[in-house]
Design a protein that fits this description.
With about 270 residues, this protein is of the alpha+beta class. The chain has eight helices and ten strands. Strands 5-4-3-8-6-7 form a six-stranded mixed beta sheet, sandwiched between helices. Strand 6, helix 6 and strand 7 form a beta-alpha-beta unit.
C-alpha cells in the first residue's frame, strides 16, 4: 500500500504488483530498471504477504547479484508498514546515503504505535490472547482494542478501556474495515492527544494480518520531515566492513553483513 505524499518533498513510491505471480523475467526486468534509474532500491514488504513473495524477492536479488537491494520486513501491521514506507520516502529527499536511509527504517519503527479495533480475536495470532478474551470474542457485539507494536496490548472495549500510547506528539491514520464504531476517533485519539487524524483505505493484507475483516486499523507516527531527519542524522554511523556503505546499527541492510566482534579475539600480553 502506497500512502499519499505527506508533503511536497515526499518522493513517489513504486508498487511491485503480483511479485510471486508474474513471470520471473518480467519482475526481474522491472527491478533491474529500478536499480539503473535510482542506484539503490529499498523494498518494504509486509509479513502478511504470502511466503512466495519473499522467496521471489530473494531470488531476484540473487540473480541480479546485487548488493543494492535492501529487503526490509519489519514486524509491523500493514498500515504501520505503509506509514513507515512513506517516512522513508520523505527522508529520501534529504542528503542521506542509501545505507543510512535504509537503516533508518529500523530506527523509525520505535516511534510507531500500530493497532486495531477488532470485532473478534478468535483468529488473532499476532498478539498474545488469553482464554477469557477468546471466550468473550464469541459474545455478540464484543469489540477489542489491540496494540501490536511497540508492545502488545489487548483490552475489551468498555467504559474503562485504556491502551497505553505514545508519550510524544504524533498524528494518527485510521483505515476502516467492516466494523462500525467511533471508539478510535472519539476515545482513543483524544486519550493519546494526537495532533491530527486522517482516514485512508484499508491495506489489502490487513484482514489476514488481524485475523478478521471486522476491524478498524490505526497507527500513530511522527509526520514532520525535520523531526525525522533530526532523529536519523543524530545517530552514530559506521561503515560496513564488507561492502563499504555507511549504515546505522550493527547490520548492513544491503549486503546483510554484521559488524565484526572483537570480544573473543586473543589479547596479546603487554610488554
Amino acid at each position: 500500500m502506497a500512502l499519499p505524499p505527506q508533503d511536497e518533498r515526499t518522493l513517489p513510491a513504486v508498487v511491485l504488483h503480483d511479485v510471486d505471480k508474474r513471470p520471473l523475467e518480467q519482475v526481474l526486468a522491472e527491478m533491474q530498471a529500478l536499480i539503473e534509474a535510482h542506484g539503490h532500491v529499498i523494498v518494504a514488504c509486509s509479513r502478511a504477504v504470502p511466503a512466495g513473495v519473499e522467496r521471489r524477492l530473494h531470488t531476484i536479488r540473487s540473480l541480479l547479484e546485487s548488493d543494492r537491494i535492501a529487503l526490509f520486513r519489519p514486524d509491523l501491521p500493514p498500515l504501520g508498514l505503509a506509514v513507515l514506507a512513506r517516512q522513508l520516502r520523505q527522508l529520501a529527499s534529504c542528503d542521506l546515503s542509501p545505507g543510512v536511509l535504509a537503516s533508518a527504517g529500523r530506527l523509525l519503527t520505535h516511534y510507531i504505535h500500530a493497532g486495531a479495533l477488532l470485532g473478534s480475536v478468535a483468529r488473532l495470532d499476532r498478539v498474545p490472547v488469553g482464554l477469557k478474551s477468546h471466550a468473550k470474542s464469541w459474545v455478540p457485539g464484543s469489540q477489542f482494542g489491540v496494540i501490536a507494536h511497540p508492545e502488545p496490548q489487548l483490552v475489551r472495549i468498555g467504559p474503562e478501556a485504556r491502551l497505553a500510547g505514545p508519550e510524544f506528539g504524533t498524528c494518527m491514520l485510521l483505515a476502516r474495515g467492516q466494523l462500525q464504531s467511533d471508539w478510535v476517533t472519539a476515545a482513543l485519539a483524544p486519550a493519546w492527544r494526537v495532533q491530527g487524524l486522517r482516514e485512508v483505505r484499508l491495506p489489502a493484507e490487513s484482514a489476514d494480518w488481524w485475523g478478521t475483516g471486522k476491524l478498524i486499523e490505526f497507527c500513530t507516527y511522527l509526520p514532520d520531515l525535520p523531526v525525522l531527519y533530526q532523529l536519523v542524522s543524530s545517530v552514530r554511523r559506521s561503515r560496513c566492513h564488507w561492502c563499504g556503505i555507511d549504515v546505522i546499527g550493527d547490520r548492513c541492510v544491503f549486503c546483510s553483513a554484521t559488524a565484526p566482534s572483537y570480544e573473543n579475539q586473543l589479547q596479546l600480553p603487554a610488554g
